[in-house]
């Protein structure tokens, strides 16, 4: 078993879904401080059931949900899924792979899942407890946990061993049994109280039973009198049974008649429903057509706006480049200057040639003088050195001359190649400049700005529609709440059943509602129904209006202008028209109180009411507002329903417009994204061209410098050849003069020739520099002219391209104008179609309302008949029940009399039937006399024997139950003792193993040190704590508080590793446990990690490179400026004799 993957969604800094794919061995998580490494540890603890917010480094549990950062908004839930490989069956579940999911919402609600199925927290804890993972989470060693282990109480340290030993589930069983035992004690106390109470009641009841037994003889005297009375009673019961049977037959006939009427009404209802069902699809189709046309209208409007904006965008743009004619003029001017530079170069060359001729003449003179002098000088030396040396010198000079000639030829070829490369570089630079002119960023920038404005306008329109929709939805919610409140708080009639409020049958105009309530007075609270069908004894005073139809009528009075009868402003249901028209026949609706008083004074038969509720009659007037009546509430509800219908209709209308605006906004966003992509690509292309131009310019400069250096080398090589040729001639002359030298020669002629030669050579050098400068200026002017002509050609091409683009823009603008015109035409047709659809929808809705009203009336008739049928059925049932009850009473009487007297009922009826002269009073007097005789015997409880028997049986039952509860308590104590024994065994075994492992681990981490674990109370293994004694090498202290920080960390690690060895767990999580360790102690700890990895999986949060080197998988955790953690996974592969290498994991998730 090992952890296979961990998926985080919205947990702390993991805003996006992030998956970590673990592998067996050591998995290291690395990253800078604050990047979210420890959040991985918190996620593991949280998904395995951690309930402490402080343990998760938070103030409250909701802090685990991503709270937002930068541009990222806060999320509403956090979710972590841990997948465990259970191929070895370590978890007690029939799956080879187990996924545990924990989900939490901001309202505090939590959800748990195991393999996608809902589960409880307890289910997850019990599932993991069998693997040694419990509430203490000893397998997760987080930051600060090491110091907590050493600073905690001994009893708290015990919990780590208990968790590793699997004791926690047995402790939960013990706690559950103890809670049951506590609850059972209360039941036991109650049983004991009841048993004692019954025991007290048995003694007096036994005495009463004994008295009843003694009175049995007296009761026998009553037998005959009671039999006679019983015969009379049976006769009466037979007569009552016959009467009820006749009533049952009449009820059956009435029920059958009403059922037939019910079938007729249901047929009418079915017909109304059929008509309504036929109309509803048409209305829905009209509604859908109206929605589609509304959306189409909005899309056409959006298209027209976009086309108008694009028409304005594609206006003519001036050419951004330089004028080709200006460049051509500058090229011609440069070519004209080129002739001047060529003339100057020719003049300088002619002067150089003249000077060279003079130099050659003087050089020849000087050389001749020098040769003559040197020949004379060397002749003497040569005579001495011999001819052999001269011949060797001549051969050497010949070889040097050949080498110099070859080098000169090579330099000339190299110079020609460099000049060719220089021309190529100039052409590439000119081509790059032409590309830069052709790819201007201005049109793309304008297009991006235009689409951004279009998208912003569309978003603004969409936001306005969204706000309007939200306002309508809030209005609808408020109206629905108002309707519910009004209906809930409406005055309820004091009578229920087959009565309905009168307000359901009336509907007044809005401005006449108050007047109607005032005119009706107490009748506003009236109910409609049959007053004879209800008992009114326990009901408050109620006005009941009987159903009846009548035509509208009023008293014969001429009303003044602006005054009308109130009935003309009220819609009255036919069912109550008789009573309502009678109540309103004399009520007139006046505009003011004065006119009302004047009308009543003119004709006292009339009652006048104003729209604000002032009611005037002869000699009286009703002022002010009374309590709210059911009629007022019904009017308010009706008004709210109308407002709700209008709001729903507006919301439906807005839905179509919103859909069109949403699509237009989406299209604008797509266009904006495309324009931004094109602009970014153009910017990148422009930057690339600039870099290319810089590189080409730099290369051209380098090549120019190389050409100049090569020219200097060529000149030097030519000078070298000349010098070698002169040396060769001199050597030959020396060989000829060897025999002619006698004395030292004179130097006057040589000196004079040398001075003249030096003077003329200086003039030659000056002329040569002038020639070279003129040639350079000529070459530069030639390159400048060629470059200008090329730029003019490129500019001409760019201008032609610009003109073509302008032609395209004009064409697009024309298309946009055409789209605007066509959109206007389509909009007119759409508006006409929308008007027709609106008219059609209104007609169908009106027809639908009429059909709904007809269906409602038919349904109400059916309901009324159903109520009458139900009442008839109820009546039939009541009479049938009465017949049955009469039969039951007769049967019970027969049975009871037979049981009491021991005489069959038929015998009683036959033998003790009342005769015609039967005197009931005399018989009763006889019975009373017998009863007086019985009373004279004393007070007797006739049921004492039965009560005593029942009480005695109950006492025995409770005594048995009491014994069962006491036995159950003993069984529970046995279970607790068994659990304690199991806990004692598990803890003792684990303690012995951990106690044996701790010194070994301690000596590994502290070579030469001494450490051990000690029980605080060895005699009480169920509650004893654990103390840690540690003595590092070279120290005599054993108190943990005197150890250094690193020593404390290693000691705590030693205890944990000892537990890990004694009771291995499938995996362990270490969060920067080696942060306080030096290199030596770190290597020791790594050695323990190497040992633990053989049997368990380790997930280590670390900053230490040695720890990273031993990892099988490396997870890099980083956090950018947006505050969101990202993970990169790498697999660390190892070769036998090579170092570790990094291989990206194929399933790494970021």
Structural summary, described in words:
Among the domains are: 1-131 and 1084-1127, P-loop containing nucleotide triphosphate hydrolases (Rossmann fold, 3-Layer(aba) Sandwich), CATH 3.40.50; 225-304 and 832-907, Helix Hairpins (Orthogonal Bundle), CATH 1.10.287; 324-439 and 717-809; 496-623, no CATH class. Strand 23 and strand 24 form a beta hairpin. The protein is 65% helix and 10% strand. Mean pLDDT is 76; it is low at 1135-1144 and 1146-1150. The longest helix has 154 residues, at 748-901. With 1150 residues, the chain is of the alpha+beta class. The chain is built from 21 helices and 25 strands. The strands form six sheets. The chain has a seven-stranded mixed sheet with strand order 8-21-22-3-23-24-25. A six-stranded antiparallel sheet has the order 2-1-4-5-6-7. The chain has a five-stranded mixed sheet with strand order 13-15-16-17-18, with helices on both faces. The two termini are 26 Å apart. Residues 832-852 are annotated as: Disordered. InterPro entries: P-loop_NTPase, RecF/RecN/SMC_N, SMC, SMC_hinge, SMC_hinge_sf, SMC_prok. ATP binds at residues 32-39.
What does the secondary structure layout of this molecule look like, with pairings?
Elements: E1 2-9, E2 18-21, E3 26-30, H1 37-47, E4 77-85, E5 97-105, E6 110-114, E7 117-119, H2 121-129, E8 140-141, H3 145-151, H4 154-165, H5 168-214, H6 216-219, H7 223-313, H8 324-385, H9 387-438, H10 442-489, E9 500-501, E10 506-508, H11 513-520, E11 527-528, E12 544-545, E13 564-565, E14 570-572, H12 577-584, E15 587-590, H13 593-602, E16 607-610, E17 615-617, E18 620-622, H14 630-736, H15 748-901, H16 905-911, H17 920-935, H18 944-1005, E19 1010-1015, E20 1026-1031, H19 1045-1062, E21 1067-1071, H20 1079-1092, E22 1097-1101, H21 1105-1109, E23 1113-1119, E24 1125-1134, E25 1140-1144
Parallel strand pairs: 3-22, 3-23, 8-21, 11-12, 15-16, 21-22
Antiparallel strand pairs: 1-2, 1-4, 4-5, 5-6, 6-7, 9-11, 10-14, 13-15, 16-17, 17-18, 19-20, 23-24, 24-25
Helix pairs in contact: 3-19, 4-18, 5-18, 7-10, 7-14, 7-15, 7-16, 7-17, 8-14, 8-15, 9-14, 9-15, 10-14, 18-19, 19-20
């Amino acid at each position: 078993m090992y952890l296979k993957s961990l998926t985080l969604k919205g947990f702390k800094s993991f805003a996006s879904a992030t998956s970590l794919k673990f592998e067996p061995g050591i998995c290291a998580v690395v990253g800078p401080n604050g990047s979210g490494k420890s959040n991985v540890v918190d996620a593991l603890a949280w998904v395995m059931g951690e309930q402490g917010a402080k343990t998760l480094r938070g103030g409250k549990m909701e802090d685990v949900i991503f709270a937002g950062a930068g541009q990222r908004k806060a999320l509403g839930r956090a979710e972590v899924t841990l997948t465990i490989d259970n191929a070895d069956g370590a978890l007690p579940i029939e799956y080879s792979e187990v996924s545990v999911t924990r989900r939490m919402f901001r309202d505090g609600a939590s959800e748990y899942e195991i393999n996608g199925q809902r589960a409880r927290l307890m289910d997850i804890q019990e599932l993991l407890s069998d693997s040694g993972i419990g509430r203490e989470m000893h397998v997760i060693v987080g930051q600060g946990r090491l110091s907590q282990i050493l600073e905690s109480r001994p009893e708290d340290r015990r919990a780590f061993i208990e968790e590793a030993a699997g004791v926690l589930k047995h402790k939960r069983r013990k706690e559950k049994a103890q809670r049951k035992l506590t609850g059972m004690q209360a039941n036991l106390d109650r049983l004991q109280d009841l048993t004692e109470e019954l025991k007290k009641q048995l003694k007096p009841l036994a005495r009463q039973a004994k008295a009843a037994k003694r009175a049995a003889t007296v009761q026998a005297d009553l037998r005959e009198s009671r039999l006679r009375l019983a015969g009379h009673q049976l006769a009466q019961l037979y007569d009552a049974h016959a009467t009820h049977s006749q009533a049952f037959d009449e009820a059956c006939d009435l029920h059958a008649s009403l059922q037939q009427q019910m079938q007729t009404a249901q047929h009418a209802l079915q017909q109304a429903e059929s008509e309504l069902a036929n109309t509803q699809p048409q209305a829905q189709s009209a509604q859908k057509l109206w929605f589609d046309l509304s959306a189409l209208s909005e899309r056409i409007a959006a298209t027209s706006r976009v086309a108008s904006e694009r028409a304005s965008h594609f206006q003519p743009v001036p050419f951004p480049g330089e004028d080709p004619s200006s460049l051509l003029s500058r090229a011609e001017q440069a070519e004209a200057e080129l002739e001047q530079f060529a003339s100057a170069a020719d003049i300088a060359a002619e002067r150089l040639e003249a000077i060279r001729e003079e130099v050659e003449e003087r050089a020849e003179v000087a050389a001749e003088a020098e040769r003559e002098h040197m020949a004379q000088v060397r002749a003497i030396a040569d005579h001495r050195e011999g001819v052999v040396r001269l011949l060797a010198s001549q051969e050497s000079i010949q070889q040097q001359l050949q080498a110099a000639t070859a080098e000169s030829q090579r330099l000339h070829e190299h110079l020609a190649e460099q000049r060719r490369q220089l021309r190529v570089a100039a052409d590439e630079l000119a081509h790059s400049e032409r590309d830069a002119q052709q790819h201007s960023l201005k049109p793309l920038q304008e297009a991006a700005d235009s689409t951004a404005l279009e998208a912003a306008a569309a978003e603004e329109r969409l936001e306005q529609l969204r706000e309007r929709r939200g306002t309508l939805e809030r209005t609808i919610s408020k109206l629905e709440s108002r309707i519910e409140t009004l209906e809930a708080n409406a005055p309820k009639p004091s009578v229920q059943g087959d009565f309905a409020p009168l307000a359901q049958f009336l509907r007044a105009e809005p401005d006449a509602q108050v007047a109607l309530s005032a005119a009706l007075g107490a009748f506003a609270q009236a109910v409609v129904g049959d007053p004879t069908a209800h008992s009114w004894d326990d009901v408050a005073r109620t006005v009941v209006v009987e159903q009846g139809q009548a035509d509208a009528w009023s008293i014969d009075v001429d009303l003044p202008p602006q005054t009308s009868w109130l009935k003309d402003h009220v819609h009255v249901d036919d069912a109550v028209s008789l009573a309502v028209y009678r109540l309103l026949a004399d009520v007139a609706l006046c505009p003011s109180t004065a006119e009302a008083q004047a009308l009543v004074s003119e004709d006292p038969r009339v009652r006048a009411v104003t729209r604000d509720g002032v009611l005037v009659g002869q000699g009286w007037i009703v002022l002010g507002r009374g309590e709210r009546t059911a009629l007022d509430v019904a009017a308010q509800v009706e008004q709210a329903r109308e407002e709700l219908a209008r709001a729903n209709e507006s919301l439906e209308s807005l839905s179509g417009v919103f859909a069109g605006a949403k699509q237009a906004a989406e299209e604008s966003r797509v266009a904006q994204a495309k324009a931004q992509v094109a602009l970014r690509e153009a910017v990148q292309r422009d930057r690339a061209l600039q870099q290319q131009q810089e590189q080409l310019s730099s290369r051209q400069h380098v090549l120019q410098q190389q050409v100049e250096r090569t020219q200097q080398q060529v000149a030097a090589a030519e000078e070298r050849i000349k010098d070698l040729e002169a040396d060769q001639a001199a050597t030959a002359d020396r060989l000829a003069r060897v025999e002619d030298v006698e004395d030292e020669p004179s130097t006057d002629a040589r000196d004079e020739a040398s001075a003249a030669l030096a003077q003329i050579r200086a003039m030659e050098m000056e002329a040569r520099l002038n020639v070279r400068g003129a040639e350079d200026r000529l070459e530069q002017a030639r390159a400048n002219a060629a470059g200008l002509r090329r730029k003019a050609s490129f500019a001409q091409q760019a201008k032609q391209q610009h003109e073509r683009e302008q032609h395209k823009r004009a064409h697009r603008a024309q298309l946009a104008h055409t789209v605007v015109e066509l959109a206007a035409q389509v909009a007119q047709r759409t508006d006409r179609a929308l008007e027709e659809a609106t008219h059609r929808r209104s007609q169908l809705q009106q027809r639908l309302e009429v059909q709904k009203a007809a269906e409602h009336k038919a349904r109400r008739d059916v309901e009324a008949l159903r109520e009458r049928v139900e009442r008839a059925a109820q009546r039939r049932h009541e009479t049938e029940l009465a017949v049955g009850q009469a039969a039951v009473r007769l049967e019970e009487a027969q049975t009871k009399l037979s049981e009491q007297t021991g005489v069959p009922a038929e015998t009683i009826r036959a033998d003790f039937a009342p005769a015609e002269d039967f005197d009931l009073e005399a018989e009763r007097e006889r019975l009373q006399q017998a009863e007086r005789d019985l009373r004279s015997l004393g007070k007797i409880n006739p049921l004492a024997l039965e009560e005593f028997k029942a009480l005695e049986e109950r006492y025995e039952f409770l005594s048995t139950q009491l014994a069962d509860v006491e036995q159950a308590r003993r069984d529970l104590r046995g279970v607790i003792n068994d659990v304690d024994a199991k806990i004692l065994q598990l803890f003792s075994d684990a303690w012995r193993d951990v106690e044996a492992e701790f010194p070994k681990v301690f000596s590994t981490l502290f070579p030469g040190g001494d450490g051990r674990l000690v029980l605080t109370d060895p005699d009480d293994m169920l509650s004893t704590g654990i103390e840690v004694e540690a003595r590092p090498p070279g120290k005599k202290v054993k108190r943990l508080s005197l150890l250094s920080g690193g020593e404390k960390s290693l000691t705590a690690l030693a205890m944990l590793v000892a537990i890990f060895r004694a009771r291995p767990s499938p995996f362990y999580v270490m969060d920067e446990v080696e942060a306080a360790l030096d290199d030596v102690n770190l290597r020791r700890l790594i050695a323990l990690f190497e040992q633990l990895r053989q049997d368990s999986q380790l997930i280590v949060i670390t900053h230490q490179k040695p720890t990273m080197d031993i990892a099988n998988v490396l997870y890099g955790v980083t956090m950018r400026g947006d505050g969101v953690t990202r993970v990169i996974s790498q697999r660390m592969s190892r070769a036998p004799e090579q170092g570790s290498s990094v291989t990206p994991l194929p399933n790494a998730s970021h």
